[in-house]
């Protein structure tokens, strides 16, 4: 792991050189390919050095972090072309990527907590520094306070674990089962429920997405929501006794909340808000699958986290491409895109179908596994799951039909072709999403 950390650290000074924007992006893609071929002998906590190591759960999420951060540069070309503090922007993305990799590769709970919180700072600066509207200040405060307030009990819980078991290493805690302690159970998982986000503590997410620049939205949807799922995957190894007793609360809230959020999606007129709310609905089903603590549930939630990271990020890129042309995110103005940008309609269709878990996307694999696990946990959940699956397809079709069909708002038909950069950006989101299902057994290996 140390070789990746050193290469990342040496990229920080490069970010302040003149015209280093594309150099850093190419280096990140190079790093992702080096990391990809390093899988040959991956076992439980491989590449161990001091407090850092990578195992099967971390591997996919670190690779996704490299990939999405490389694509963030490609999507934010406007920052570079307008010279809008582009060096500082590059530095922020690098810092965020570094924190995320450290988070996913931590072997100590305290180190995990430290970097989990530190990843919030560059995200906040991305929203405040390169957001579009004055409301970004309020969105930043929402993001900060929701996350920080929920994380303080986690810190207390970590210190309690240290006192109880005299270790903070994930690998040593695997054999320790903490007894039925309600406060400890709640304090250890609440921070992750907010980060996912679970219904009822989700209000910060649509606000943050709507005010964030495209790079902020991509990293929020692609990686930061996955931090919650990753934290729960790690914590439930020693919270099983409490989990069996109390998890039904969170599953119930997530499934009912997922249906309600899907209904909210159906009346959104803001492109970004619609995609953001759809993330809440998808994370609801991921959370439910995780909470069942079954093999199907854990592998399904891991698959869907990877799939959602690529699919949702791609949809935000599409929304931004339309926004840059029209100057508005409203569906009332962004309609008739089939006349305006016909070459992009195919990408809208492919990514919207991915969002509703159509084959052959990785979303389908994740959702089938999650449906299996949740229905096996309780057949009553079939009612909400059927609604969730139906509305998931409904709002994805609504997003596609309303944005692509109808008359162009301005009344005059004019034609715009996307640039090669934009098509490459969308291809690099869509291709892994559909090719990864060919390697679906890989998602099942880590348990």
Give a short summary of the structure.
This protein has 447 residues and is mainly alpha-helical. It has helices at 2-14, 21-36, 56-75, 77-81, 86-104, 109-118, 120-130, 136-165, 170-173, 182-195, 204-211, 214-235, 240-265, 271-291, 295-326, 337-340, 342-355, 362-377, 381-404, 420-435, 440-443, and strands at residues 46-49, 52-54. Strands 1-2 form a two-stranded antiparallel sheet.
Rg to the nearest angstrom? 21 Å
Helix content: over 70%
Number of strands: 2
**Category by helix and strand content:** mainly alpha
Count of discrete structural domains: 1
What separation lies between the terminal Cα atoms?
Answer: 21 Å
Give the strand order, joined by hyphens, for the main sheet: 1-2
Number of alpha- plus pi-helical segments: 21
Described by the principal axes of the CA atoms, the overall outline is globular
Which residues form runs of ≥5 with pLDDT under 50? none
Strand content: under 5%
What is the H/E order? HHEEHHHHHHHHHHHHHHHHHHH
Mean pLDDT: 90
**Biggest β-sheet: count, sense, barrel?**
2 strands, antiparallel
Which features would summarize this protein structure in a list?
mainly alpha; two-stranded antiparallel ribbon; 21 helices
